């Protein structure tokens, strides 16, 4: 996206000296000083880091990959802003940040980054990497061709280690289950066990009228297309994130009807 950025410089008088206010960041890839990073937003990444901190340069590369430094970007899968925060997180983020979080507010760079920091803390509290959500993208993170290839930067950019295998569970998808839980939450271990029972952790598993990790029935396709605001069918349900989000939406629907969140998968409670 191209355009002309107009910078209005304001002056504050402190005693007899005049101090120029810092110019606003220039959105888009042209506003970055380093290819493959959103350097114009790195001060905000530093100022709004989660309590445990994060690798600012690495988050900056994820930001470049997700949005090319454009805070207004909206994806077809309902992700918004610099770090592409998904709509499913809005309710959780409102409670944690104590402010309105929604599609339009997430186009504000600081709110988007604070939201990412809150999600980082959420995943770390569940034993996952701070960068988990962005590592789900199978595309490799952009690299900075001018940066020296040091051991430290290589280690920071490496994906988190795989969770230990546990018989009868799909531990490799438990972080996905945690980060996409329905508003009332669910038992991640139980959902992982149900996932094992239904698909043996194979996201490409198909049946005549159902598909994916949690064997979501296509009888729910119309409802899920509306609930997730994206096309849901036997093909899209092979995407692990779509399958888990679909399960969460169905869990919410069944709870509202006074049923168990786990009943569709053959478990009670």
What would your notes on this structure say?
It is a single chain. The chain is mainly alpha-helical and 269 residues long. It has two domains: 29-157, Lysozyme, CATH 1.10.530; 171-265, Lysozyme (Orthogonal Bundle), CATH 1.10.530. Helices cover 36% and strands 6% of the residues. The chain has ten helices and six strands, in the order ββααββααααααββαα. It has helices spanning 42-47, 56-67, 90-97, 109-124, 132-135, 151-157, 174-179, 188-199, 221-228, 240-256, and strands at residues 11-14, 17-20, 79-80, 85-86, 210-211, 216-217. The strands form three sheets. It has a two-stranded antiparallel ribbon. A hairpin with a 2-residue loop joins strand 1 (11-14) and strand 2 (17-20). The model is unreliable at 1-18 and 137-162 (pLDDT under 50).
